[in-house]
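Predicting holo structure, magnesium ion bound.
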Amino acid sequence: MIRIENLTHKYKSRKEEAIKDINLHIKRGESVVLIGSSGSGKSTLLRCINRLVEPDSGKIYVDGRDIANCPITEAQKIRSNIGMIFQHFNLLERETVFKNVLNGRLSHVSTLKTIFGRFSKEDYEIVRDSLKRVGLEEYKNERVANLSGGQKQRVAIARTLSQKPKIILADEPVSALDPKLMKEVMDLLKNICDEKGITLVSSLHFLDFAKRYSTRMIGIRDGRIVFDDKPEELNEKNIVDIYGKTKDWYMYGKLGF
Ligand SMILES: Nc1ncnc2c1ncn2[C@@H]1O[C@H](COP(=O)(O)OP(=O)(O)OP(=O)(O)O)[C@@H](O)[C@H]1O
Ligand SMILES: [Mg+2]
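Done. Tokens:
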């Protein structure tokens, strides 16, 4: 589903590369969780996959097409298959839940139709189904600003779902939520991806959380992959490889699941 070859990116204002020579092959239906200290390069990697960040070098094949090295119009087409979930939801707070979820259809509707607000009957049905799947039908006319954090992330999931993606990239999708909601939202996201065969690539901070929701864990340190294996293979030595000897990783340890 995603094949990354020799991917490197350096932000102009920085001396060091944020990600260095990343090679990665992710199969359809996998649930990959990225772990690593703050600043290790998780967000940069996720953002390169849908070209929100323009990589300096390397190739990123999404379903066989190289999104990193194609005209931007082609990249937009490839991107229509990739949903993105952010830590701080990225919703239009003053708009209704329904409108936000309808925005997920934008990448499938021509610009002209969008200008005239011409979504099809099918678009509206998809939005209704997506809202139903995340349990927010009753809230469809509510402004997003009036919702709780957990509800907002469910709106974001519904918006992504209405996009009918093959891949979902989730950058710390539950970091802004309390522990009970973290579990609820991650359960929802993982179940939806399993149900629909969507490939999920997320970044999560808590280790037992990352284990629970992954079929494969990838540890990043200073922009390089230093661990890539099944979650049950993660041991203390690997954890030190990923986080260093500082023992800081203890704070990423138990969350009590
Ligand atoms: N827009 C930017 N401009 C300049 N440097 C950036 C930018 N975004 C990230 N960086 C730098 O790139 C490196 C990797 O950052 P990145 O955000 O990818 O890490 P991360 O693993 O997602 O961290 P966190 O866990 O805190 O979210 C860091 O050194 C960071 O300071
Ligand atoms: Mg990040």
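The domain at 82-164 is CATH 3.40.50.300 (Rossmann fold).
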